[in-house]
Specification:
Layout: E1 2-11, H1 15-24, E2 30-33, E3 50-51, H2 60-70, H3 77-97, E4 115-116, E5 126-127, H4 133-147, E6 151-154, E7 158-164, E8 170-176, E9 182-192, H5 213-220, E10 225-226, E11 231-238, H6 250-254, E12 258-260, H7 280-294, E13 299-302, H8 308-314, H9 316-324, E14 334-343, E15 346-348, E16 360-362, E17 367-368, H10 380-396, H11 419-436, H12 443-464, H13 471-492, E18 517-518
Parallel strand pairs: 1-2, 1-9, 2-6, 9-16, 15-17
Antiparallel strand pairs: 3-5, 4-5, 7-8, 8-9, 10-15, 10-18, 11-14, 12-13, 13-14
Helix pairs in contact: 1-4, 1-10, 2-3, 3-10, 5-13, 11-12, 11-13, 12-13
Pfam family, one: Succ_DH_flav_C
GO molecular function, one term: L-aspartate oxidase activity
Cofactor: FAD
Length: about 525
């Protein structure tokens, strides 16, 4: 079924997709593909808050400087400055929409809302809604989206690929409904807001993580990808092998939480002068080292010294969730482990969200704007979603003449693929990525990952020729190729920088670092 009535097609309904839809809809008709699973996506689980210069004691240059330090020499300073400068107005926009940020009623408050501090930040600049900021922002934006007459919500379709044409332009997306029927949505402009690639790993901070589907869909049309090797692992995911993933916010350490090992010893002061407030890559590696040294499968985050009143006040969601899983965090430290959290790399875009493919845009975690460099600083992610959604929306408000070339047809087989086989290959991929391409990578481990992923690729590729379209198969095919591209980028960047740490080359290897750029066709040469 082909439907060509779409002006702006937005794929993904987290903070980035919702914000863009709202900002465009007064000017052009928007179709928002937002499956119900988006309610469990990364945006909703963002606990800590949004970084922005809001306090009289803070300034733009300080936020820029902190971001550049965290990015370990690989940030695009133009993108950093653009994002930070746009931050205050983005927060004002959210306040005007009614996001229930936590107020600050103290007598000496210099700003109406409470600001906390997180790792890498030299000041209190994180505005938040208790410890459930992502949920508060998503729910507020969704209410406005649902009420807007110029936004059409589509929750029954899942995008499995993009539509190109003979001129190399993006023309929309191919989707499947719940019954496996194919739908082609032709659009004048297409925006990907599909999230990152933490689902390539076994342990993540999101119950339903994306696996880079949007990145590869863009790459299939020829889009350039950038900095895929920089996968951030959040230092403190709740350790509970029997339960679902649950992130323990950076703000817990910002308010005084201490990391201790299995022997009850604090270890961060000996690693970095910023101790628990060091950037995430440093903290995650320190935890990993402690686990290796002690043979433990987790460490602990201790907030008992804050007292019950402060814990319940600052972290009601974390307190309630841990209690529901039998953990009394008032009297016992929280068991935590690093988990795949955020992809600093993605689809290369400019400051208006445009990819290298005409009429294809990307915003949020699926994009690589240059803001994060080699390591994302805490709470700069929701900031990026908002700033670039609004920037991309400004570009999209004026419709340009669409391409007149014929859309490229898709060719599908009719042979169903065994779902158990798909899950077996997916689990093997995740095991490989977690064992060889995680917090610490070695030359030998990356070589083994490249070899074994190529074998999985050869096992799956012949089936794609005659396979009937299915969401599970498409997601695996996307994920497996992105995993191989990620390994290729990691092997190409031998130096340790930011989130990419290789003990075989532990220091920076170049004075002027360059971003890693790769296209899907490069896979044939890796």
């Amino acid at each position: 079924m082909t439907d060509g009535k779409h002006e702006v097609l937005v794929i993904g309904g987290g903070v980035a997709g919702l914000a863009l839809a709202l900002e465009v809809a007064d000017h052009r008709r928007v179709t928002l593909l937002r499956p119900a699973s988006d309610d469990q996506g990364a945006s909703r689980w963002a606990q800590g808050g949004i970084a922005a210069v809001l306090s009289p004691q803070d300034d733009i240059e300080a936020h820029v400087a902190d971001t550049l330090v965290a990015g370990d020499g690989l940030c695009d300073e133009r993108a950093v400055r653009f994002t930070v400068e746009q931050g205050p107005s983005a927060i004002e926009w959210l306040v005007s929409l009614g996001v229930p940020f936590t107020p600050d009623a103290s007598a000496d408050a210099g700003y109406p809302y409470h600001l906390t501090r997180e790792g890498g930040h030299g000041a209190r600049r994180i505005i938040h809604a208790d410890d459930a900021t992502g949920r508060a922002v998503v729910e507020t934006l969704r209410q406005h989206v649902e009420a807007h007459p110029n936004i059409g919500l589509c929750g029954e379709l899942t995008a499995i690929g993009l539509i190109g044409d003979g001129e190399g332009h993006c023309r929309g997306a191919r989707c499947l409904d719940a019954d496996g029927r194919l739908h082609e949505l032709l659009a004048e402009d297409t925006v990907l807001a599909t999230g990152g690639a933490s689902g390539l790993y076994r342990h993540t901070t999101s119950p339903l993580p994306a696996s880079g589907e949007g990145m590869i869909m863009a790459a299939e049309l020829g889009a350039e990808l950038m900095n895929l090797e920089f996968q951030q692992f959040h230092p403190t995911c709740l350790y509970d092998p029997e339960g679902p993933a649950f992130l323990v916010s950076e703000a817990v350490r910002g308010e005084g939480g201490l990391l201790i090992n299995a022997a009850g010893e604090r270890f961060m002061p000996a690693v970095d002068p910023r101790a628990e407030l060091a950037p995430r890559d440093i903290v995650a590696r320190a935890i990993d080292a402690q686990m290796q040294r002690t043979g433990s499968d987790h460490v602990y985050l201790d907030i008992r010294h804050l007292g019950e009143a402060a814990i319940r006040h600052h972290f009601p969601t974390i307190h309630a969730h841990c209690a529901s899983r039998g953990l009394d965090i008032v009297h016992h430290p929280i068991p935590v482990v690093p988990a795949a959290h955020y992809s600093c790399g993605g689809i290369t875009t400019d400051l208006g969200g445009a990819s290298t493919v005409p009429r294809l845009h990307a915003i949020g975690e699926v994009a690589c704007t240059g803001l994060h460099g080699a390591n994302r600083m805490a709470s700069n992610s929701l900031l990026e979603c908002l700033v670039f959604a609004r920037s991309c929306a400004r570009r999209l408000r004026a419709a340009e003449s669409p391409s007149s070339a014929e859309p490229t047809p898709a060719h599908w087989g009719r042979q169903p693929v065994d779902l158990d086989d798909i899950e077996e290959i997916r689990e093997a991929m995740r095991q490989l990525m977690s064992a060889r391409v995680a917090i610490v990578r070695t030359d030998r481990g990356l070589d083994e990952a490249a070899r074994d992923l190529a074998q999985l690729h050869r096992r799956l590729a012949p089936r794609m020729e005659d396979a009937a379209p299915s969401t599970a198969l498409a997601n695996l095919w996307h994920a497996l190729r992105l995993a191989r591209l990620t390994v290729a980028c990691a092997r190409a960047r031998r130096e340790s920088r930011g989130l990419h740490f290789n003990p075989d080359c532990p220091v920076h290897g170049e004075a002027s670092p360059q971003p890693s750029r790769i296209r899907l066709q490069d896979l044939q040469a890796t």
